Amino acid sequence: MTTRPSRPRLGRARPGRPPRRPEARLGDLPGAGEILDLEIGPAAHGGHCVARHEGRVVFVRHTLPGERVRARVTSTGSRFWRADAVEVLEASPDRVDPAWPAAGPGGVGGGELSHVALPAQRRWKADVLTDQLRRIARYDGPLLDGLTVEAVPGDDDAGGLGYRTRIDLVAGDDGRLGMHRFRSHDVVPLDALPAGMPLATPDVAALASAEGVFDRRWPPGTRVELVAPAADGGPAEPGAGPAGGGGLVLVDGEPWHRGRVDSRPNARRTVKEGATVRLPGAEAVTTFAYRVSASGFWQVHRAAPGLLAQAVLDAAGGVSGATVLDLYSGAGLFTLPLAAAVGESGTVVAVEGDAGAVRDARRNAHGLGRVRLLAGDVADVLSGRDTVPGQADVVVLDPPRAGARRDVVAAIADRDPERVVYVACDPAALARDVGYLGQAGYRLTALRAFDLFPHTHHVEAVAVLERR
């Protein structure tokens, strides 16, 4: 599945803390493949729950807090073990028939909560987000009291299915398309959509059927990406499917149609995306149009672009005439509505490190004189006072899953913005950076969480931090 680009882990060792040593009894305990009877504890970040066996922590997937299960150990180590629940002895009332059986024990990654009822999935994610902010950011304020994860309108009616506008597939040794087994290079073959991958939108399934991607055998290792953008967060417009050109198949990064790859430099590699928001003070909604590289990053939930753009505008507050920094700005999802909100007297400075996304952003922001697009690593660009304003009224950042680095947070605080709007897809990274901003004199004043990835452990959050 398409995910955000990742950066290397940036954690630093604590001064004076000795390295962890393997525990002496590791050889005395069962190894990988053993079956354990476990009492399941709380949910943890990463889509698993915590259990203990003879004093050792075991992270168990495919279970729920309070259950008693039999679990197969999938890996062992000196600090913790991993296991998959393979038999439920005492079930939680929140357990349901899996919405995506192929993502069950021993199956593909990416659907680890499909056995959990949707309301319980959101409580799970709220608990994890709350726990990370308390433990890592040392925040225990009122924003966490009764924190809820907001459902996307229409998702409950659809059972949390049919929302992904992009999926990634890979051919296994037998040439069949599938996805990688969790924490493995092995490929699990999938049935044709939507049965094989029910998180995909009907338009993605229609694209796969029209192009016959599941009807053939592919060279092992071939990557097949299916992209079928939605119109303003809803179903694709009539005629915008495969026949209308709204969908695109990429084979190893090249456009593919009717059994042939078109590797010409001018071959179509972009898709049309949209986001509909209500600008501050506007009575009517405004729709922004984007052309985005099919292989680049874009929010995968059909409704996520408009929902997040609106959340960012609301969080930024009144920015008419303001200077706004839009960091990790991608193809310009937030840049365009922010430019409309600051007006002719304001400025939006967008910074992005991916060259393809910068090209998309230049095309999407063409003609907007109040927008400045800067290409390069965010930390490096922020260090250049001659190109980036030394002061900003508002900073918006939407970093990759690993979050912003300490030096990026320091550069943000150095510009003394009144408000920082942080869009995050990883609770641990968000909590770490909220902690850094707290050390720099900012306090968390607002927090919203959105269930943009039903049936997975992922959750999107929009946090607002203001100067103390």
From TrEMBL:
The active site is at C425 (nucleophile). GO terms for molecular function: methyltransferase activity. S-adenosyl-L-methionine binds at Q299, Y328, E352, D398. This is Class I SAM-dependent RNA methyltransferase. Belongs to the class I-like SAM-binding methyltransferase superfamily. RNA M5U methyltransferase family. Residues 29-87 form the TRAM domain. Residues 1-19 have a biased composition (Basic residues).
